[in-house]
Amino acid sequence: MAHGISRPNAPPRKRRRVAAASAEIKEQKRRTAKVAALCMHSEVQDALDVVDNLIESIVGKFGKSFEEIQEALHLGGHVLKAQRRPGINNVCAHCEAQSQVDWVGDPSKDRVRHVVEAARKLPRTYLDLSQEQQQVLLDQLAASRAEEERGIGAKPAARIQDSRAVLQHIRRELVNLHDRDKMEFLFVTTTGSTGKVAVTDTFLTPSATAFINTVSKTEPSVWISSFEAFAVNGVQGLLHNHELRKDNMKAHIRETLRGQIATHSGRPCNRLEFEGYEKLIVEKLGVVIEGWTCPDFVSPSNFKLISQVEELYRAVNNGTCYVRKLDKAEHDKHILSNQARAALGEEVYGTKKGKRAEVLQPTTESETGLDD
Q: Are 246 and 229 part of one and the same domain?
């Protein structure tokens, strides 16, 4: 039959089966792989011994610690690559690849691209370049390696990723030290300029958190935001941040007490009255404010010291300063007591029009004749 004519009814041709590897062959392969692994392990151990001896010699020569020299060497792959001498072979590979990808449309790399294009037209490409042209490429490779080593890229996303990787490594090491050796850390990072893209990170051990709360009398989050404000804007930023924090605490005090007054009285409290407290809050709404920490019963906006604002802020949050609803008997006694005090000339219901405002003292239990 002529070649090329198919036989539709012909039985399928059986392919020769490949003989399975025998158990002896498999065992031989395993032994060979094991010997190769042991040889590589032995070579690695020899290399480590050489490195250890080298580190010890540097330690003895300069009087540094073993860990310090170890950290200075830092035998990571990117460091070894950066330390390798830039020759013309890896220079041409780097510049040619980058000129087609990352350097497209970058005016600062025009000179390098012109050298790359000129090398392509030469018989031996880069080997026939002049010494000056080769030096241009060598300088560019050195600059690229330095840029990669510093982690500073042309794109903000690359800088953020690099910062995040470095901070994650530092955090991991600090966590290990804390768990292993019970070391305490106060680690805070923030950007020093709004023109730089950076990642803010914090790592506070329990002792560091307690230290901030005890010494600075502030929450760690507030302390960290103050540090960031100072890093970016100096003292002015810190003062501005301080004022914002004080204003936020005052607003929180007012809103919390107003909400409690509205809840207990069943009537909306549009503003927290201080000068007309007895008339507009106690007598009209039937509630009193207990646990006021400041000696003078005035608006938090009139507090002279930030410590007074912080003390009242903590009292409101802890529930020691709160609004209490008066029963009918207490309410009537308050009204009678206020009227009697007003009859004696005391300005219980605030200052009259045209007179200088004075500080109003809160009503005490002894003055109202009430017992707990």
A: no
Of 146, 167, 193, the domain-final residue: 146
Which residues sit opposite 204 in a β-bridge? 186
Range of the domain at 97: 88-146
User: Residue 369 in 3-state DSSP?
Assistant: coil
Helices 88-100 + 131-150 axis angle, to 10: 70
Identify whether the C-beta of residue 321 lies closer than 8 Å to the C-beta of residue 292. yes
Q: Determine the angle formed by the axes of helices 131-150 and 110-120, rounding to 10 degrees.
A: 130
Residue 358: predicted pLDDT: 41
Q: Is residue 306 part of a domain?
A: yes
Model confidence pTM above 0.70: no
Q: Which of 146, 173, 191 is the last residue of a domain?
A: 146
pLDDT tens string 5-25: 555 565 666 666 655 667 888
Tokens of 180: 């292993």
Give the least confident one: 13-22, 28-37, 205-214, 298-307. 13-22
